[in-house]
Task: structure prediction
Amino acid sequence: MKVFISGGVKNGKSFYAQRIAKRQQTDSNTPLYYIATMDSTDREDDERIIRHRNEREGWGFTTIEQPRNIENILEKCDYDGSFLLDSLTALLANEMFTPSGDVNPDAHKQIAEGLIEVISKVNRIVIVSDYIYSDAILYDPLTEQYRRILAALDSMVAQSCDIVLEAVYSQMIIHKGKDVADFALS
Result:
């Protein structure tokens, strides 16, 4: 089963994603992988990474740090495993805004190709993304470009998944796959 979860920041997405990935792993008796995409740039990022590590402690995840080139996880994992990719938002930021300070406006093309390859080769994956593109504030052109690209990537991933969920006030709204989502959420 392939699941996409989007929603506002600090809305329970990662917790639900962990539960779903663990459920899939338990039911299939396969390895459990946490694909960590955050590339820390400041103290707040460090704190978030620590919080996420603590939240998944004892769940049985093998963590793979993959802040760029998402398709490379296929070289490090058993395709039949259960995967949790957290998050598409961080992956895009890492690929689009390089460590050298350059901007790669075509980063989404590589990400899209990599995600399509991963989604097509693995049997069970949960992909998390932040819903950051709906407020009425007008940002600078580069931020607006990032938000548009993230929305397009989210749409592509949602189309490729069996279940699409949105976290709203720590509740899950099912947008796609209602007939199978109850299994994933139980």
Observations:
- The helical segments are 13-28, 43-56, 88-96, 107-121, 141-160, 178-185.
